[in-house]
Amino acid sequence: MAAFARARYKLARFRVMQPLRPVVLERRLVQKPWGGRALAECPGIPLPAEQMIGESWELYDRPDGSSEIREGGTLHELLAADMRGVLGARVAATRDGRFPLLLKFIDARERLSVQVHPGDEQARKHDDSGKSEGWVVLHAGPRASIVRGFRAGTTRAQVEAAAHAGAAIEGLLHSFTPKVGDVIPVPPGVVHAIGPDVVVFEVQQNSDLTFRFWDWGSGRELHVREALEAVRVGDEGPPTVVPTPIDARGEWLLRTPQFRVRRLRFDSPATIGTEGSYKVMVVVDGMAAIGWRSGGEHPPIPLRSGETLLVPAAVSAIFVSPIGPMTCFWIDGERG
């Protein structure tokens, strides 16, 4: 009974917040053995002293935790109170009623494992959704490298034989030196690894299904059978995509069946519509004051580099007043 009463209280609290308004989300910093300190500079996230941070989760809604809203409550509670008002009519939640995407910054001081994510069909066997993701490179140091897909001419038979032989898989992987601004799509089935010496912004479906193909001889558990079932060979698509201009202010970075990502730049005030679905603004350079019109006057929300704003679908538009030049990612779950 106590748990039921707490749930009713939380829902009542969000009903008081009606009409829905933009909310700033608090990040979750995740220590990783391969992480570093680069996120303090790019995009400017305050880091705890002496901790090696590999990931900063900017928006998340997982069974073990959900983004905290700066004004109180969590993203999951907000969804439970008014899912349609938050997501919009054209965007679906996950199978268990959670936010469809997870957004994070990744600092790969050292290289990550070689892995692959399944599509929806294989993921259903694990009672989960598939996992498509995409990266935007924010920093690339002298040792920078990215693995994405296999070398041209590689066959499935070669991949299967090499996967069972361990280190032999390294000779089949396609790696390249990334540069700042590279946009890298990683659809389900494409083998990949970040790092070393790379910082990326990652957009992904809200799924935790990862099959480790190879971990550079570390001895960690591999998932060879599942990885071979999921992996694509010979049809991975190009490793990077060229942004497509929209107008003087913005460009498309990624348009996938699961999400869309735009990069917008502001040097003067502007109005942006939500087009009937949720939007997420992640500031990567500069700062701005964000206003909106929703049943009354509201003080603007200050937003600086490294901070994330969720704009519910029920908010028809926001007003961006940059304080000097400002650049952000503008993300939604519409089909690209």
Any chance you could write out the topology, listing elements then pairs?
Elements: H1 2-16, E1 23-25, E2 28-36, E3 53-59, E4 61-62, E5 65-66, H2 75-81, H3 83-87, E6 101-108, E7 114-116, H4 120-124, E8 133-140, E9 146-150, H5 156-165, E10 173-176, E11 183-186, E12 192-194, E13 198-205, E14 211-214, H6 224-230, E15 244-245, E16 250-255, E17 260-266, E18 270-273, E19 279-285, E20 287-292, E21 301-304, E22 308-311, E23 317-322, E24 326-332
Antiparallel strand pairs: 1-22, 2-3, 3-6, 4-5, 6-13, 7-14, 8-11, 8-13, 9-10, 9-12, 15-16, 16-17, 17-24, 18-23, 19-22, 19-24, 20-21, 20-23
Helix pairs in contact: 1-2
What does this entry look like structurally?
It contains 6 helices and 24 strands. With 336 residues, the protein is mainly beta. It has helices spanning 2-16, 75-81, 83-87, 120-124, 156-165, 224-230, and strands at residues 23-25, 28-36, 53-59, 61-62, 65-66, 101-108, 114-116, 133-140, 146-150, 173-176, 183-186, 192-194, 198-205, 211-214, 244-245, 250-255, 260-266, 270-273, 279-285, 287-292, 301-304, 308-311, 317-322, 326-332. The strands form 6 sheets. It has a 7-stranded antiparallel β-sheet, with no helix packed on it. Strands 2-3-6-13-8-11 form a 6-stranded antiparallel β-sheet, with no helix packed on it. Mean pLDDT is 92; it is low at 1-5.
